[in-house]
Amino acid sequence: MSNSPLLIGCGEWGFRELPMEKHFEISQRFGFKYLEFGIGGDFPGRLRPDLSRDEISAFRAWGSQYDQATPFCCIENDFTRPDAAEHTAIVKKTLEEIQLAAELGATHVRLFAGFTPASEMNEAIWVRLIDAFQKCQTRCTELGLKIAIETHGKITMSNGAAFHEPTVSTDRSSLQRLLRDLPPEVGFNFDPGNLKAVAPEDDRYCLDLINDRINYCHLKDWKRHAGGWTAVAIGDDDLDYAALLRQTEFAGVYLIEYEPTEDVEAGIARSLAYLKSAGIDYRFQ
Question: Which of 168, 211, 227, 281 is the most buried (most CB within 10 A)?
C-alpha cells in the first residue's frame, strides 16, 4: 500500500439474502462508490446467469441511480472437481458467466480455483485446473477483463462453526505451482482472513508469494468458535491489518467483506470504525 489513503469499496457476500437493489442502497448510504456483485449461487442477492437484456439494463441503471461503480464480479466455480465430465460442464458455465459479467460492466472477475483439499489433488485434476484457467484467461483477454483467484480454503460447517482445509489457493506449495503454471495475466484476490483460518500460525498470509499478483482484495477476519471459526468484521479479532496493509503492494480497491447476513450493516460499520481506530486513512473514490 502506498502512502495515499486506502481506496475502499463494499463487498457483496453479506448481502446474499437481500434483493439486488438493496445492495446499491446500503452501499450508497455508507458513502461507498464501488460495489461488488455476484452471479450464480441461487441466493436472492445474486444475479441469475440467464438475465434478460432488460434485467441487464436495470442493473446498470442502478449503478447510475445510486452513484455506484460495479467493476468487481464474483462467479461461483470449482475447477478441481475430480469428475472430468462435471469439470467440463463447470468450465462451460463459467465462460458463459464471464461473458455476462462483461455485459454487466465488470472489469474483474473473482474466480475460485476449487475446493478439493490440496492433499487430494492428483496430476489429472491439476492439468484440468490449469487448462480451465487458460480458457478463461483467453476469454477475459477478448472481453477486457482481469481474473482474480480468491485465496479460499474448503469450508465445512459443523455445529455453527466453519472448518477450513487447505486448497490449491491457500496451501503454500500449491500456490507456488499455480504461480508457475498459470498465465502471468491471472491475478489473485487477496483474502488474508481466509488464509489466517487455514493456517493461523503463519502470519505471512502468503503475501510473500503473491504480493505482485494481487489485483483484487477482500477485507474480513475469522474468530475461533466451537473448535472452528466464525466470520467477523476486521477489528473483531486479531488480524493486524494496519501492519499487513503496509506490506501489501496492491493499489486498487480494497473491498470490505462482512459475511454474516443477520447484521451486515453493523458489521460494515464496525469495519470502517476499525480502519479509523487503527490509523488507516481511507477514501471512497
Answer: 168
Structural contact between residues 146 and 187, judged by C-beta atoms closer than 8 angstroms: yes
If we measure between CA atoms, which residue out of 77, 107, 174, 95 comes closest to residue 139? Answer: 95
Phi, psi of 18 (to 5 degrees): -105, 145
Residue carrying the nine cell digits 477486457: 144
Place of cell 507456488: 176
Domains (range + CATH), the chain: 6-283 (3.20.20.150)
CB proximity list for 69: less than 8 A, separation 6 or greater: 33, 34, 35, 63
CB 183 within 8 A of CB 130: no
